[in-house]
Specification:
The structure holds two protein chains of two kinds.
Chain A: H1 2-29, H2 34-45, H3 49-75, H4 83-99, H5 106-135, H6 139-159, H7 192-209, H8 211-221, H9 223-228, H10 234-261, H11 272-282, H12 287-311, H13 318-343
Helix pairs in contact in A: 1-2, 1-13, 2-12, 3-7, 3-10, 3-11, 3-12, 4-5, 4-6, 4-10, 4-11, 5-6, 5-10, 7-8, 7-12, 8-10, 11-12
Chain B: E1 7-16, E2 19-29, E3 34-38, H1 45-52, E4 60-65, E5 68-70, H2 75-80, E6 83-86, H3 98-106, H4 115-122, H5 136-149, E7 154-158, H6 166-181, E8 185-190, H7 193-199, E9 202-207, E10 210-216, H8 222-230, H9 244-260, E11 265-269, E12 272-275, E13 279-283, H10 290-295, E14 303-306, H11 310-314, H12 321-328, E15 336-337, E16 340-341, H13 343-356, H14 373-386, E17 391-395, H15 403-418, E18 422-426, H16 430-436, E19 439-444, E20 447-450, H17 457-464
Parallel strand pairs in B: 3-8, 3-9, 6-7, 7-8, 13-18, 13-19, 14-17, 17-18
Antiparallel strand pairs in B: 1-2, 1-4, 4-5, 9-10, 11-12, 15-16, 19-20
Helix pairs in contact in B: 3-5, 12-13, 12-14, 14-15
Classes of the chains: A mainly alpha, B alpha/beta.
């Protein structure tokens, strides 16, 4: 077991190095100074306490929470590709509650915002669950398509019911001060980090210690045996896993509103819901691993901004590194599995 | 035999991790013969044929087709040498039709000229039928059609009878003979002696990766083959086709013995009672509703179920032995503590069961996927009995197992019955049903009938086909 852990650590490190190398090559080919760019990437992500706390960790929080949501569904064998949409649904609900929370006690306001966000995520997931259980519609498709609906819903909200009072800009009023999360010191880092860590620990305990988590894994790894030999109601477990997954992703949207932006606007998420899939898969759906992969991708996203500022490299360039990392890990996984399969043949 | 072998493997070595699967095995298939490749599970039969089909690269040794040395890097290379394989597991695509599957296999080959053999193979195979709706026997027939559609003149059949009823096995062996009569050559991988004598011209016996016998079947007896297959001096083997008279009297004796025992009706199958303390055999041709009949009890309290497909229905391959134990016994008080699972307790019990049931694995944390078929089945059986059921329903519990593992499973079923459990055994191997059962129920077109005490194979067979 420890060997497996060391191996996945080595794989992740290799993938990171290869990813950065490919990025550097690409930058050189495009005529940028790779050392300057990579230096900027480092300074913008982990190079200083400020970069770490106010850029990297701030971006890691939604990636971790959404990554946990994705992992929860994937563990049950249900592929929730719609974390982005659930994030937006949560953000809309959080904003709506937040702007009405003036004068409420802080904990009540924050609790209400988070609860509304999680419920909105569940509601957003209800349709795919219904479609899957009733008509066998693949959740991959329904959750993915609802992402576009959610983005349209945000556009509607910020130009309609939730538009700021002067009705000029396509964005909401800021949420009440009571609903804003406390920050750590002089940084932009907010209480959401604590929530993300607690959620990761909770999910880890659920997966490894509880009967509920065991059933979830059984359904994901062997649905037929889970049903026949385990007497597990497979469909119900999948449905519940998807709903909780939606709740977590929705909560991620609520945390972003209450901790970072304080207001709703279009393109609130730079694709957190999609990056979260990579975060979850890189961690092999292990909640504690997601804390690290979330941090890694948070750092890359933060560093990309630094690269843009300092070296004039478009921030999207960092996606080359992200994609390479994912490819290397997927490749390593296949190779390791083949080797294991070859080794264990009778 | 004379002339050059159609397919010859010589000095084949293959190691998987710590296991030396083949230690210099030689095999030669002559033109126009059915060649049985006989051996226990794990003897290396499938590995050897997977090498002949390009699925596995040997560590050492050569493969020759018609005397020419060839390197088979993939099944594609093998097909180019006109080698086709019928695998243990179906490779046809369920969502497509019969016709589409054949076209897929044939590739650019224009028309697979059917001929008499083709007609015979296609009898009952509706080209427009969706494959997932086909009965098992027809799906398997389709596998052969697909192999031949690739232009194969050498056919490797990997335990093709494992999923078939007795009458279907005869049909299959007939088809293989017909293929050979039309100029093909076939290898029949099997661990059933009856099939060797029914269909093969020559036989090669593998034992622990070494060839222990090869030659004409006519020179062999069941006993002589069994000896080289299992090894001398290891008892417990019983002929699978012989010993008819012995079994009949034993059956009567057992029936009398149960009269002395306390008999309680535990459940009724299609209106026919099943009693505690005996093995009730279910004899039926595949597709007569016996599966649905038995599966109706799958989640009944006090019923433990050993499902047909241990690899996907019985076990979760990625789970450890411990986890698979907990899977089947989620509410056991030893480890179910509220919403928590006490894994150390479950692990300890798994270790105990491993030693009681002689389950060979690295330990209770070993993934089910790393276990051999026999050991997997022992896990499933151990777990079923751990429920202390009043009824144990087993579907094809020895399917794909070697002689020794089969004997162990049989012993467990007998012991369970002796301990008062009502054991219901369904097997597509009629001989197995007759050998083990105190009473036999025949299912034909969803109707359940008790076979008369002491009924012989022919009588039961007629009931299965609805002749009686």
């Amino acid at each position: 077991m420890r060997g497996a852990l060391a191996r996945s650590g080595a794989v992740a490190l290799t993938a990171l190095v290869v990813g950065l190398l490919v990025l550097a090559l690409g930058l050189t080919a495009a005529g940028y100074d790779p050392l300057l760019a990579l230096g900027a990437l480092w300074r913008g992500s982990f190079g200083s306490w400020y970069a770490l706390s106010s850029a990297t960790l701030v971006r890691a929080v939604p990636l971790i929470i959404l990554g946990l949501g994705v992992a929860l569904a994937f563990r049950a064998g249900a592929l929730n590709i719609g974390a982005e949409g659930q994030f937006y649904a949560g953000a809309i609900a959080a904003t709506w509650v937040g702007v009405h929370a003036a004068g409420w006690p802080g904990p009540v306001a924050i609790g209400a915002v988070w609860l509304a966000a999680a419920v909105a995520g569940v509601v957003w997931m209800a349709l795919p669950v219904l479609l899957k259980l009733r008509f066998g519609v693949l959740e991959v498709i329904s959750t993915l398509l609802l992402n576009f609906v959610a983005e349209a819903a945000v556009s509607y909200a910020v130009t309609g019911p939730l538009q700021e009072s002067k009705r000029i800009y396509p964005q909401s009023d800021p949420i009440a001060a009571a609903a804003r999360l406390p920050l750590f010191g002089n940084t932009r880092l907010h209480l959401g980090l604590v929530l993300a860590i607690l959620l990761a620990l909770l999910l880890w305990a659920l997966f490894t210690r509880t009967a509920w988590g065991f059933r979830l894994r059984a359904v994901g790894l062997g649905p037929l045996a889970a049903e026949l030999s385990g007497g597990i109601p497979v469909k119900r477990v999948i449905g519940i896993a998807l709903l909780w997954s939606g709740a977590l992703a929705g909560l991620g949207g609520g945390v972003e509103i209450s901790g970072v932006t304080y207001a709703l606007f279009q393109n609130l998420s730079p694709g957190y819901g999609f990056t979260a899939i990579a975060v979850a898969l890189l961690a092999r759906l292990n909640p504690l691993g997601i804390l690290f992969t979330g941090l890694l991708f948070g750092g890359l996203e933060a560093g990309a901004q630094g690269m843009q500022r300092e070296a004039g490299v478009p921030a999207v360039a960092v996606q080359v590194a992200e994609a390479t990392i994912i490819l290397v890990i997927v490749l390593a996984e296949v190779v390791l599995r083949r080797r294991a399969a070859a080794g264990s043949r009778p | 035999m004379s002339g050059v072998a159609r397919l010859a493997l010589s000095g084949i070595m293959k190691q998987f991790g710590p296991v030396q699967a083949l230690r210099g095995a030689d095999f030669a298939l002559a033109s126009g013969e059915v060649h049985a490749l006989l051996g226990e599970n794990g003897a290396g039969k499938s590995t050897l044929m997977h090498i002949a089909f390009g699925m596995i690269r040997p560590d050492a040794g050569t493969v020759r087709v018609d005397g020419r040395a060839v390197t088979l890097r993939s099944p594609r290379d093998a097909r180019a040498q006109r080698i086709g394989m019928v695998h243990q597991h179906f490779t046809s695509i369920g969502a497509l039709t019969v016709e589409e599957n054949i076209t897929l296999a044939a590739g650019r080959r224009k028309s697979w000229t059917a001929g008499r053999l083709g007609e015979r193979l296609m009898a009952g195979l509706d080209p427009k039928a969706r494959v997932e709706a086909l009965p098992v026997a027809l799906r398997q027939r389709l596998e052969i059609v697909q192999a031949l559609a690739t232009g194969a003149t050498i056919l490797l059949l990997d335990e093709p009878s494992a999923v078939l009823a007795p009458s279907e096995v005869e049909e299959l062996l007939g088809l293989v003979r017909a293929f050979v009569d039309e100029g093909g050559s076939a290898v029949l991988i099997t661990h059933k002696l009856s099939e060797v004598f029914a269909a093969a011209d020559r036989v090669t016996v593998l034992r622990q990766g070494v060839v222990t016998r090869h030659g004409p079947v006519a020179l062999e007896t069941e006993r002589s083959l069994a000896e080289v297959m299992i090894g001398a001096g290891e008892g417990g083997w019983k002929s699978s086709t012989g010993g008819q008279a012995q079994r009949e009297t034993a059956g009567l004796g057992d029936a009398n013995a149960t009269l002395l025992r306390e008999r309680r009706e535990v459940i009724a199958l299609g209106g026919v009672p099943v009693y505690s303390g005996e093995i009730t055999g279910i004899a039926a041709v595949v597709g007569n509703g016996q599966r649905e009949l038995l599966r109706a009890y799958i989640h009944s309290p006090a019923v433990a179920f050993v499902p047909e497909d241990r690899s996907t229905e019985g076990l979760i391959q990625a789970f450890s032995i411990t986890e698979n134990l907990v899977l089947g016994l989620p509410e056991d008080r030893r480890w179910a503590k509220g919403f928590q699972v006490n894994w150390p307790a479950a692990r300890a019990r798994a270790a105990e069961l491993m030693s009681t049931f002689d389950i060979r694995a690295e330990g209770p944390d070993a993934a089910a996927a790393t276990l051999s078929g026999g050991n997997q089945q022992k896990v499933v059986l151990a777990r079923a009995l751990e429920r202390r059921p009043r009824v144990l329903i087993a579907e094809n519990p020895t399917r794909g197992l070697d002689v020794r593992a089969t004997a162990e499973v049989h012993a467990r079923l007998r012991a369970a019955a002796a301990a008062g459990v009502a054991v219901v055994l369904y097997s597509t191997d009629l001989d197995e049903v007759l050998e083990l059962s105190h009473r036999v129920l025949v299912v034909h077109q969803r109707r359940v009938q008790a076979a008369p005490p002491g009924a012989d194979r022919r009588q039961v067979g007629e009931m299965m086909l609805g002749v009686r």
